[in-house]
Amino acid sequence: MGDESVTITAYQDGPYLVRGPFRMLDQEGRQITMQRRTVALCRCGKSRLRPLCDGTHRAIGFRASSGTENQSGIENQSPPGQTQPIQAVDLSSSSLAAEDELRRAQRGSTVNANGSRPRPVSRGTLLGLVRDAEQCLYQSLEGPCTATDYAAMSLAEPLLTAARRLLEWGVLNARQTISSGRSNGHGSARLGRPGSTELVARALASAQRLQSPADPRLHQVRSLLTDAKRALVS
Amino acid sequence: MSVTLRSVDDRALVVPGPRGPWSEELLGALVHAPGTDIPIPNEEPVDPLGDDDLQLALYVCYELHYADVAGVEDRWEWAPALLAFRRQLEDRMEAGLERLTPTVLGAEASEVGNLLQQIVAEDDGPPLSRYLETQAELEQALEHVVHRSAYQLKEADPHSWAIPRLSARPKAALLEVQFDEYGAGRPERMHSVLFAETMTALGLDASYGAYIDLLPGVTLAGVNLISYFGLHRRLRGALVGHLAAFEMTSSIPNRRYGNAWRRLGYGADVTNFYDEHVEADAVHESIAAWDLAGGLARVEPHLAEDILFGARSLLALEARWAQHLLDAWRDGRSSLLRSVTSGSRGG
User: Fold this and answer.
1) How far off is chain B from A176, nearest CA to CA, in Å?
2) What number is the ipTM of this complex?
3) What is the mean pLDDT of residues B288-313?
């Protein structure tokens, strides 16, 4: 790379890096000023600094190979290149396991302690909580930040944290949390998820008691959740 | 600008006040000429990685390699008594790290790039940058800057210790990153200078080490970690892993920090530093993960575990530090040893 040629390197799951004596132009032929010798060009399409990369690919779980992709098209879940996915099997199986746990949790709490039939909280609602919150956050990553964005983020932030913990808790022991949370009110009308505020508040309280760093299950659950989240977002 | 450059050029550390037996023994010795042994205190810190006293002592030991320490003879830098004392501190730091992030054996050298991606993807540290972006009050945002000043005013320097210790390919990758960190030949673009400008624009004291007496052990530990990796050739793998994880987790938080200051009504003179990092670290992260860390693992496969250990150590200490800030703010306390508005030393 010591000669005067321009190179473009595609990095796995990341941007294109351009090195050498190149010029960047807009379509009118005007030069785009570069602040550095090596630049990273956005490959995931979600950067707020396009054509430059701003690291968003990591937030959205962008996947792409470093080399040429094969003609059979995009294979979203399998990491590309010759390197085998480290946890390709775990990824889907642990997501399934998370879903399964949530489904069991749901079944286990169809009747309240007082015998009344509670308002059903579907698995879709739980997953929807996470998805809504994630979407709020990703939108705020993409557009210019306005006061509304900040309001949305302030709203989404605790919800996301709580929803994540709800999922963690759900994997460990969701039955009790959901049945008790369910018998409560319809707090969070703002995001159109009836009952979610109470549900989430209780899950949060329960989960926090479990959040001892010494708990060896925690790490396991966390990676499970990361995988589950990845599957949800894609 | 000229004021800032002068303060950055003047790298002199005012001796901090002692906080306990370890810093008392050290600072007591440093006022004399080098020679006599520095006594090792009997007190064992319960949590060496968060200990205000031990981390301050270690910080001063390391600063001798970076700066003039006022009233301390330069020859202390390599005095056997100092190095013996420092080793005691490092032993405790190392034990703490091993408890916090045990080395995971059996890492495949060819997988280091992928494993780093996985470690970073699974990291779910406390949402400090989101809190700052959306909710933090001015005082809290200022505290964040003060904490960061311990590293950012010498940004990139601790990782430069790796340069003479790497072979050609990883060395070239490291220098590609560092050249950019150091402003690509333009001192006014140097990241440490940009940070000093941010501090000045916020009315903070940008002189080197101005806030040392306010910084808790949990903050100093993060800076000491890099110096510890950097000053030991045997830990070059951990140093490289640290830099890779650092760059890989930088762009998005820095955008949020910049947004935090925009939300609070500040302009480009404050946000330049953060905005620059969004763009720069988006370049650096790929180089650091694949060319530097992956490249080092290819030529020195036995360092694979160290590389990952360095990455995990960074993330674990950052998480502890972030939690410390959020806990303090939740309880309505300052996250510093004293509130920043109570004035910097001598201020």
Assistant:
1) 26
2) 0.86
3) 97
Q: What residues contact residue B159 under an 8 Å CB cut-off, 6+ apart?
A: B174, B178, B226, B230, B239, B242, B243
Residue A214, number of CB atoms within 10 A of its CB: 5
- The answer, for B130 touching chain A at a CB cutoff of 8 Å, is yes
- pLDDT at B123 (0 to 100): 85
The alpha carbon torsion through A224, A152, A199, A214 (nearest 10 deg) reads 40
Q: Which amino acid is at B251?
A: S
Q: What is the pTM of this model?
A: 0.73
Strand, helix or coil for residue A224: helix
Answer yes or no: are the C-beta atoms of B212 and B13 closer than 8 Å. Answer: yes
> Which residue, B110, B285, B278, B245, is CA-closest to A15?
B285
Q: Which band of pLDDT confidence, cut at 50, 70 and 90, is reported for residue A46?
A: confident
Pair of tokens at residue B77: 């830098």
B332 vs A187, residue with greater confidence: B332
- What does the DSSP assignment read for B208-254? TTTTGGG--HHHHHHHHHHHHHHH-GGGHHHHHHHHHHHHHTTHHHH
- Tell me, yes or no, if B327 comes closer than 8 A to chain A by beta carbon: no
Rounded to a whole number of angstroms, the distance from the CA of B134 to the nearest CA of chain A is 6
The per-residue pLDDT for B316 is 96
Mean of pLDDT values over A191-205: 37
At residue A37, the pLDDT reads 87
- Chain A contacts of B248, Cβ < 8 Å? 58
